[in-house]
Design goal:
The protein is α/β, with parallel strands linked by helices and 415 residues long. It has an eight-stranded mixed β-sheet with strand order 5-4-6-3-7-8-9-10, sandwiched between helices. The protein has a two-stranded parallel ribbon with strand order 1-2. The protein contains 13 helices and ten strands. The radius of gyration is 38 Å and the shape is elongated. 46% of the residues lie in helices and 11% in strands. The structure holds guanosine-5'-triphosphate (GTP) and magnesium ion (MG). The site of guanosine-5'-triphosphate (GTP) has 20 residues, from helix 7. Magnesium ion binds next to helix 7.
Length: 415
C-alpha cells in the first residue's frame, strides 16, 4: 500500500525547515556579534546610545551641557533617556584669503617716529638736511647763521608767513639769550613745529554718532578714493561696519575704483548711474547707513578745481542734502591735499575752507616729495587738524597724524 506522501511535498518541507534554521542561526550569530561590539564600545568608554520606551530623545539641561553630571537614576529594567550632547565649539576656521590681510592692519594708534621716518625721507633729505648741514660742526651762533636758516626756510615750502614767523621767533629768542648754541636752535625748531601742528579741539571720534558720516573732498588726483579705501580697511580691522558712497558720478571708473576697495575690505558701496546728481546718491547712501545701522558712511566726491565756482557750489548742495538724510551729517568733512603740490596746497586749502566747513585735513603722498614742510604752512594758516597722512601706497601707510611723532620723524638725529 502506498503511504500517499508526495515526495515533492517532502522536498518543499525540507527546504522551508532549512531556511528557518538558517535564518535562526544567522540571527543568533548577529546577536552575538552585536553583544561583542557593545562590550568593546563600553570597554573603550564610549557612551551607549539608548532609546527610551517612548522613543523620544532628551536634550541635556544647560548646566549639564558638558555631559559629565551624574546620570539620572533609572528604575531597574527601564532604559535611561538618551542624551543629545551639544556640538563641541567649532575649531577655529582658517581665514578666507583676501587681497590684503585685514587682520594685520594696525588696529590702534602707536606713536612711532622711527616707523614714520622712511615715509618722510624725501622731505628730510631736502630742506631738513640743508638745515642740518648749516648746524653741523658749528659750536657758536654767529650772525650769518640766522641768514642761512632764513634762506632754507623760505625755500622749504613751509609758506612765507609761517617761515617768517619762525625766523622772528628765533631772532627774538636769540636777543633774549635763550638760545645758547646751534643745537638749541635745532631743538627750538622741532618743538615749535610740534606746537604749530597741534591744533586744539576734539579728536576724531568714530563712536560720536551712528552712522558717522564722513565726506571726503579735494582736487583731482589728490588721493581721495585711495584714502577712503585705506580708511575703510582700517575701520573694518577695528571692528566697525563701513558703508561706502560713490559720490563721484562723473566717471564710471571712479565708482569702479571704490567698488574694488569695497570688495577688498568687505564694505558695501552705494552707487548711482553715471552722471547722476551726487547729492542724490549720497542722500540714498546716508539713508541706508542709518536704516541699516552702519558705524560709518564714507562719501567719495569727484575731484574738483577749487577755482571752479559751480563745482564748489555743488559741494555745498551735497552738504545740505545729506544733512537732511541724517541729523548733523556730514559729521566730518576732510579735505585731501596732495603734498607734492607744495605751496599751491596752501592756496587750495584756503579756497576749499572758505567754501565748505572743513573739519580736518588728510595730507597724501608725503613719501613722494621733498615738500612735506607744507604741512606746517597749511596747519598754521588754517588752524585745522591734520587727521591722517599718507606716506605710501599700502593700507598701513595711511597713518593717524600725531604732531609730536611727525616732528620727531622730521628732525630725527639731524643735529
Ligand atoms: N605714493 C603715494 N601715492 C598715493 C598716496 N595716496 C594716494 N596715492 C596715489 O595717488 C593716485 C591718485 O589717487 P586717487 O585716490 O585716485 O585720487 P582721487 O583724489 O580720488 O582722484 P580723482 O577721483 O581723479 O579726483 C593713485 O595712484 C594713488 O595710489 C600716498 O600717500 N602715497
Ligand atoms: Mg577719486
Amino acid at each position: 500500500m502506498e503511504t500517499g506522501i508526495n515526495p515533492d511535498l517532502i522536498a518543499a518541507l525540507v527546504t522551508v525547515l532549512g531556511l528557518v534554521g538558517g535564518t535562526a542561526a544567522a540571527y543568533l550569530l548577529v546577536r552575538r556579534a552585536r553583544a561583542a561590539r557593545r562590550r568593546q564600545i563600553e570597554a573603550a568608554g564610549e557612551p551607549r546610545l539608548a532609546t527610551p520606551a517612548n522613543g523620544a530623545l532628551k536634550v541635556l539641561p544647560e548646566d549639564d551641557a558638558d555631559g559629565d553630571a551624574a546620570a539620572p537614576e533609572t528604575p531597574a529594567g527601564e532604559r535611561p533617556d538618551a542624551r543629545i550632547l551639544p556640538f563641541p565649539a567649532p575649531a577655529a576656521q582658517p581665514a578666507m584669503p583676501q587681497d590684503k590681510p585685514v587682520a594685520d592692519l594696525p588696529p590702534a594708534r602707536v606713536k612711532d617716529g622711527a616707523a614714520l621716518a622712511p615715509g618722510l625721507a624725501r622731505t628730510r633729505s631736502g630742506w631738513v638736511a640743508r638745515l642740518g648741514q648749516i648746524f653741523a660742526g658749528r659750536k657758536e651762533i654767529d650772525p650769518a647763521l640766522v641768514d642761512e636758516i632764513e634762506k632754507v626756510l623760505l625755500t622749504a615750502d613751509i609758506g612765507v608767513r609761517t617761515s617768517q614767523k619762525l625766523l622772528e621767533e628765533i631772532r627774538s629768542s636769540l636777543g633774549r639769550n635763550e638760545l645758547k648754541d646751534p643745537a638749541a636752535i635745532w631743538a627750538f625748531l622741532r618743538a615749535r613745529s610740534t606746537e604749530l601742528l597741534t591744533v586744539g579741539g576734539p579728536p576724531f571720534d568714530l563712536g560720536l554718532t551712528r552712522p558717522l558720516v564722513l565726506l571726503v573732498i579735494g582736487v583731482n588726483g589728490s588721493g581721495k578714493t585711495t584714502t577712503i579705501g585705506k580708511l575703510a580697511a582700517q575701520f573694518k580691522a577695528a571692528g566697525k561696519t563701513v558703508l561706502l558712497a560713490a559720490g563721484d558720478t562723473f566717471r564710471a571708473a571712479a565708482t569702479e575704483q571704490l567698488e574694488v576697495w569695497g570688495s577688498r575690505v568687505g564694505a558695501p558701496v552705494v552707487r548711482g548711474k553715471e552722471g547722476a546728481d551726487p547729492s542724490s546718491v549720497l542722500f540714498d547712501a546716508v539713508k541706508r547707513g542709518k536704516a541699516e545701522n552702519f558705524d560709518v558712511v564714507i562719501a567719495d566726491t569727484a575731484g574738483r578745481l577749487h577755482t571752479k565756482t559751480d563745482l564748489m557750489d555743488e559741494l555745498q548742495k551735497v552738504r545740505r542734502v545729506i544733512g537732511k538724510a541724517h541729523e548733523g551729517a556730514p559729521h566730518e568733512t576732510w579735505l585731501v591735499i596732495d603734498s607734492t603740490s607744495g605751496q599751491n596746497a596752501i592756496a587750495q586749502a584756503q579756497i576749499f575752507t572758505q567754501a565748505m566747513a572743513v573739519s580736518g585735513i588728510v595730507l597724501t603722498k608725503l613719501d613722494g616729495t621733498a615738500k612735506g614742510g607744507v604741512i606746517l604752512g597749511i596747519v598754521d594758516e588754517l588752524r585745522l587738524p591734520v587727521r591722517y597722512i599718507g606716506v605710501g601706497e599700502r593700507v598701513e601707510d595711511l597713518r593717524q597724524f600725531d604732531a609730536e611723532e611727525f616732528a620727531q620723524a622730521l628732525f630725527q638725529n639731524d643735529a
